[in-house]
Amino acid sequence: MLEKVLLGLVAVPYLVGAAAAPTDRAQVAFTFQDNEIVESSGIAVVGDLVATTNDSGDTGRVFAVDPATGETVGTTGWGAATDAEALAPAGDREVWVGDIGDNTESRDSVQVTRVPVGRGSRDVDGQVYDLVYPDGPHDAETLMTDPTTGRLYVATKGVLGGALYAAPETLDPDRPNLLEPMGDVLPIATDGTFLPDGQRLVIRNYGMAAVYDFPSMEQVEQFRLPDQEQGEGLAVDSDGSLLLSSEGVHSDVLRVALPTPNPAPTAASSAEPTPSPTVRTESREDVELPGSTQTQRSAWPWLLGGLIGLGTVVVLTRSMRRR
Questions:
Q1: CA within 20 to 30 Å of 3's CA: 249, 268, 285, 289, which one?
Q2: Contacts by residues 118-122 (CB-CB < 8 Å, ≥ 24 positions apart)
Q3: What is the full DSSP assignment across 278-313?
């Protein structure tokens, strides 16, 4: 039942995204040629290849795709999954697979597994790590890796807004790994990625994306995404452009340029100059992650989206009760 309600809310991010600045015109980077790639839910750039995985319902496998042709050149089978939704880079020719979907918010823990990706077919028995939220179960489709430290981050998929959580710096395979909340993210997050410098990250939903400073999680930009059948995947290419994947057989992967962030206010606009943040000059290992961060964002688009979402939930719930 909850899945039906969430499907009815797909229009919410499009309405919210209408208030954001548009992206530049998108280009088709390549088209998936494999008939087995039917629900590309997450993507990651791995060297000269692009990795993707299907949404729940498929066997546990990752596809390695040549972006020059769109052809699948390798697969990695890694075992059964409850709801695999995301991929994140994991170093040379490897990805983290995020079995983090939880539509009913009933899982005691979610899992991540590190698997190799490359040309040719292989089956692996990857090490599985359990992740646990400190405030109860959440649905999530976004898994990201800090390129400077390798640390994993999960962004939840909340109708009225989600949250970013940090995994422990070193994962323990023998016990649950407690996630640490960091800050708010946009509603119905479906994927995200760190930018190469590790100082910003981008998170998307079906109709828009937001750029955040890291680790403050202050939103610095939001922008509309090009129309896709059910756009979910997001990755950053070697040239700094964004790759956007969508569910559907033979779906296009789009390439868009990352918009330039709005300029920060000048010192003349305030009574006293604001000292420059020291986070950027410190080693990332020495930076203490904030327990919670209040982002600065335009309030009315989120309020509009929340009201529309709540209204839709009420209408759908009442209609289903009458059946």
A1: 249
A2: 118/46, 118/49, 118/64, 118/74, 118/76, 118/93, 119/49, 119/64, 119/73, 119/74, 120/73, 120/74, 121/74, 121/75, 121/76, 121/77, 122/74, 122/75, 122/76, 122/77
A3: SGGGS-GGGPPPPS-------HHHHHHHHHHHHHHH
Say if strands 128-132 and 177-178 run parallel, antiparallel, or are unpaired: parallel
Could you tell me which residues are beta bridge partners of residue 27? 255
Asked if 52 and 234 count as a contact pair (C-beta separation under 8 A), the reply is no
- Whole-prediction pTM value? 0.78
Taking residue 236's Cβ as centre, other Cβ atoms within 10 Å add up to 21
Q: Judge whether 130 and 153 are in contact, CB under 8 Å.
A: no
Q: Give the span between the Cα atoms of 244 and 43, in whole angstroms.
A: 8
**Average of per-residue pLDDT values in the chain:** 82
- Collapsing DSSP states into helix, strand and coil, what is residue 79? coil
Residues 62, 88: Cα–Cα separation, whole Å: 12
> What average pLDDT does the segment 241-261 reach?
92
- Please state the φ and ψ torsions of residue 171, each to the nearest 5 degrees: -85, 140
Q: For the stretch 49-68, what's the b/e string if a residue is b when 16 or more beta carbons lie within 10 angstroms of its beta carbon? A: bbbbbbbeebebbbbbbbbe
